[in-house]
Design a protein that fits this description.
Helix content: 10-25%
Number of strands: 23
Distance between the termini: 40 Å
Number of helices: 11
CATH superfamily of the largest domain: Naphthalene 1,2-dioxygenase Alpha Subunit, Chain A, domain 1
CATH class of the largest domain: Alpha Beta
CATH topology of the largest domain: Naphthalene 1,2-dioxygenase Alpha Subunit, Chain A, domain 1
Structural class: alpha+beta
CATH architecture of the largest domain: Alpha-Beta Complex
Number of domains: 2
Length: 433
Amino acid sequence: MLSAEENGFLSHVGPGTPMGDLMRRFWQPILLSEEISERDGAPVRVRLLGEDMVAFRDSNGDVGMIDNYCPHRRASLFFGRNEECGLRCVYHGWKFDINGDCIDMPSEPAESNFKDKVKITAYPTQEAGDCIFVYMGPPELKPPFPHLEWTRVPSANRLVMRWIQDSNYMQTIEGDLDTSHVSFLHRWFYTKDRPQAVARRIKNGKDMTVMDGSPRLHVEETDYGFIYGSRRDIGDGEYYWRATQFILPAYNLIPSPSWPTTGHAWIPIDDDHTSVFSFTYQIDEALDPTQIEGRKASTMQMERVKHQTVDGKIIDGYHDVRNSSNDYLIDRNYQKAVNFTGIPYGRSQDEAMTDSMGRIVDRTKEHLGTSDTAIIHARRQLARMARELQEGIEPAVLQHPESFNVRAIDVVNTTGDFKELLKVDGSLAKGAA
């Protein structure tokens, strides 16, 4: 368990917090490209690491990410006019480009140079993987863009979805680092009812994740985060290994027995909300319509909403129609006959658990076991790096973008030693060149 002080240190990500400073050193996905696809189109309200911003695509197709509040009288630029390579406040006409420079100030005399003295906070963006990424750290320390494999395949080979979750980023990360819950939370009683991806984990007609519900965990720290293996004994001298990648600062790559594979980015909106990016991709060929629709159908049902935070701020984004307000539409008859939870969608099942802990889980009351080894390691690693940053030690991996190019491992093997497995099958953990 953590003390209340340690829990706060880990969970708080706003401006000036140690964890917020660490997160700002990394490129972070903030929007799907499709959410802001139109040149001179409508701005989008976004929030990241406790800062309120608006995003807009200008006349040249470049994406700006600037402070939500006009520096004149603090009116919201969400209502602004996106025109001629800038966002113009409709209150008094002040106009700002994607760099934050005031390029027009019609409310002042023509001979005034006041506009040259006014600048709005703006952050650099980069479009990759059908997403808009933003860097919010010191400009002089802006790192190269990371070589995340899912962002480097053709768009046709990839499906990316995004939604807002009502809980702290860390407990959502921890859900992906908890491999033992797969044996329970995502259990289906009949093979014919299981999602296709789960049905492939079958040996002798049995689901290998259910054959051993108490996997042995092994963690190997890396420069980009860590990889951890969960070993399930499935008989006949064989082990079912699922090796999950944790990529700094907030990515998980989920083991899959075959392509396409998937992963998540858990991006802190603020202390109480997370922007979740779910990416499914394969290397050598495009996803076919069946794969795309199957992935969408097995994830959740989403709707576009104007999401209001606990302090009254507005975020534009998608939300699961199954949420805390309707108990995730749990079906108790379904729970008895079809699956373990009574909730049909895997991501809705996870969301129900992590959100039910509260906006920020009280980790002082936890009782962690051996199955929580990877969770403990992630907490310690992030907290250590945040403390090191306060001492002036920058994350070294940021200058090595190729280090982020890794994969998860899903394999049946006769070795029970994780280090030995990585020697034999370690090439499986390397992304494509």
